Amino acid sequence: MLKIVMLKIVMLKIAMMRHFARRIIGLGALGGLLLVGGCNRQWEFAPVDMWNRSRLKPYEPATSGSFNSSSRQLVRGTVARGQLRTDEAFYNGTLNGRLITALPPAMMQIGANPVSMREIVERGHERYDIYCMPCHGAAGQGDGMIVKRGFAPPPSYHIPRLRTAPIGHFYDVITNGYGAMFSYASRVPPRDRWAIAQYIRVLQRSQNARPGDVPANLRGELQSKGRVGPSGTVPLSETPSLPGQMGTPHASQKAPVPAPLGPLDSPGQPGDASAPD
């Protein structure tokens, strides 16, 4: 009986030694592969080289042929597909270097299809609520939720400086940023930037509406109820949709708006592919 027990113990030790030997061999083989992987073609250990010297990187200096670079330079004036920006007003918000004061003509149509001002404003309203309202607030007073959490407030859209600023100014700020505000060019395509700028104009008008802006069949009702301010302005909550559907929709009337965008419109840098036809 004792011999059987001793034999089992010996067999167990042999099995453990074999298992340990297999692990040692496996680890040694893995280490050898790692060392070989760090060698160059001359079998010299060079972990930083990794065979990089055997290829040319883009635009790396080279003496092959008649060029001094591993890559040919682009031909002068080359423009990537979809990035031809010949419409200065649409892409830069300027005309002859000066900020424009009205929407560029390219905003009023997509290809052969006309775009109404209502579509532009509604699209701008939707985009404004996504990108601008957190800081600027629903009415553009600079009292958004981010400001209420301690962020520095942006100026109100209703101060004289911004009420008299050309619409191209708002497009330029969205594109390039201003002060603490960073550029939204990578998030908002040019057509949406113009839509937001036009909606800002609507906000400015809604906060300074005059009785003459109200449809004639509703003026008497507002005046009879004393809802016309002492300066002749009409509060935002009492302002119906203005002529041409330029009024500010109430929150209860908001609904998802299909984007009046062309097939090439997509977020990108100022030179993105949302080119007007």
Write the layout of secondary structure elements.
Blueprint lengths: L1 H36 L50 H5 L1 E2 L2 E2 L9 E2 L2 E2 L2 H15 L1 H4 L8 H4 L11 H4 L3 H10 L13 H17 L9 H9 L53
Antiparallel strand pairs: 1-2, 3-4
Helix pairs in contact: 3-8, 7-8
What is the CATH class name of the largest domain? Mainly Alpha
Portion in beta strands: under 5%
Average of per-residue pLDDT values: 78
Named CATH architecture of the largest domain: Orthogonal Bundle
CATH topology of the largest domain: Cytochrome Bc1 Complex, Chain D, domain 2
What name goes with the CATH superfamily of the largest domain?
Answer: Cytochrome c-like domain
Encode the helix/strand succession as letters: HHEEEEHHHHHHH
- Choose one word for the global shape: elongated
- What is the straight-line distance between the termini? 98 Å
Structural class: mainly alpha
Q: Biggest sheet, open or closed, and with what strands and sense? A: 2 strands, antiparallel
The helix content, as a percent range, equals: 25-40%
Number of helices: 9
Q: Count structural domains.
A: 2
Please give the radius of gyration in angstroms.
34 Å
Uncertain spans, ≥5 residues at pLDDT below 50? 236-256, 261-277
Strand order of the largest sheet: 1-2
